[in-house]
Amino acid sequence: MDVRVVVAPVFGTNCCVVTADAERPDGRRDCVVVDAGAGTVGGVLRLVEEHDLVPQAVLATHGHVDHTWDAAAVCETFGVPLRLHEADAYRVADPFGTIGLGSDEGPVAAVSEALTQALTDFGCTPRDYRAPAWIEPFDGTAPQVVAGDVHLRALHAPGHTEGSTLFLVDGGARRGVVLSGDVLFAGGVGRTDLPGADVDAMLATLRGVVASLDPALGVVPGHGPTTTVGHELATNPFLGG
């Protein structure tokens, strides 16, 4: 499967379009859109048109609003659901409340202020957010998320949020890729000081789920440059590197 990235102009969220290898009977290919951040819908539409794709679902690695802002627009355009872990589904209905928007306390206040400013610079406000009308939560026991011809392995990876999920993309003859959301970055890991985060859960995720990944896997994080699992295991200070 191929992974193409559209970088959101708000918070630089990496929105990924994952395309199936197999052609449909009509000669087109199925795809899913992962983490439709603010301002990504135009880039997604261009990729769909240029590569003759058929979106089957929008997925979210977790429920933070910088990963779901354009989910409603993409879902409505293609008539597909938003799918994310059931533990984060509550965030979609109230994305700003669940990160403490308006709080004047510590790191939550800083994130709230930064997000509000980023949206203002983009020309919108929290009032412009629309939740997708059709949401299909999946639970932590689901070994795969299947949408049309796209099959992704789903690994529950709590810590940054309760429902954070890693999506593994089989590369076939090419190197596979893990879409790590805000669990793992190049040289860093997701923060654990926001509402719903858990330091102990993050440590368990890093020492268990992330450490057990194939070092050859490429990593497309929720923000920032790509990397590999092997490089992070060797150099990331949060993984003992």
UniProtKB/TrEMBL annotation:
One Pfam family per UniProt: Lactamase_B
InterPro entries assigned: MBL_Glyoxalase_II, Metallo-B-lactamas, RibonucZ/Hydroxyglut_hydro
Keywords associated with the record: Hydrolase, Metal-binding, Zinc
Stretch forming the signal peptide: none
Cofactor names: Zn(2+)
Domain of life: Bacteria
Keyword Transferase: no
Domain Metallo-beta-lactamase span(s) in chain numbering: 12-223
UniProt name for this protein: Glyoxylase-like metal-dependent hydrolase (Beta-lactamase superfamily II)
Protein's organism: Isoptericola halotolerans
